[in-house]
Structure formats: structure tokens, C-alpha cells
Q: What sequence folds into this?
């Protein structure tokens, strides 16, 4: 492939300006950059999936066992955390709170 000289690059630039216009050219370049980033990340994911996991050798060394393990204190039972409300429940609570705040904001202030 022949090397592009400065005159060829200027001609290509002028053609691009004529085709896209000066205002849309930066927007087209941004879109192209985003597309290339997405394409690179997707191809990297495909390469990671295709590579087989490498086998690692592990060396197990025998540890001397203590005669009797020390008794561990049993922690006190902690109450289970309450389950998180669903998205609908959270939305309903937020709507109720917003209605209360609107009512407070609209109420006349007494001194």
C-alpha cells in the first residue's frame, strides 16, 4: 500500500468536509471513536472466552497438626437483616414521601 503524502491527505479531508459538512464532521468522528471502542472491548471479550484456562501446579505441604484444637467461642446469633423491598415498593414509598413534602411545602406557615 503506498504511503499517503500531505497532498493526498488534504484532498481526502476536503472530500470529507464536502460530504459531511463542517458541523457534522466532529460528531461523525465521535461516533466512529465510540464504535471502535465498543468493537475493541467486544473482541477482547471473545479472545478471553476462547483462551483455555492455564493449568497451575499447586504444591501441598504437610502442616503439623496440633494435639487438640482450641475451642472457639460461638458468636451470639445476630438477627437476619430485613429483606430489601422490591423496586415497586421503593417507588411507592418515594411517591408517598414526595406527596408529603409537597403537602408540607404548600401548607401555610404559622408563626
A:
Amino acid at each position: 500500500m503506498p504511503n499517503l503524502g500531505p497532498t493526498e491527505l488534504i484532498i481526502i479531508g476536503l472530500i470529507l468536509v464536502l460530504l459531511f459538512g463542517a458541523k457534522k464532521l466532529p460528531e461523525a468522528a465521535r461516533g466512529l471513536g465510540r464504535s471502535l471502542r465498543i468493537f475493541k472491548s467486544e473482541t477482547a471479550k471473545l479472545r478471553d472466552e476462547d483462551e483455555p484456562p492455564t493449568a497451575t501446579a499447586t504444591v501441598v505441604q504437610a502442616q503439623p497438626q496440633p494435639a487438640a484444637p482450641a475451642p472457639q467461642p460461638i458468636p451470639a446469633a445476630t438477627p437476619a437483616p430485613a429483606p430489601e423491598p422490591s423496586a415497586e415498593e421503593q417507588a411507592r414509598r418515594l411517591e408517598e414521601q414526595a406527596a408529603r413534602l409537597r403537602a408540607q411545602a404548600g401548607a401555610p406557615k404559622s408563626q
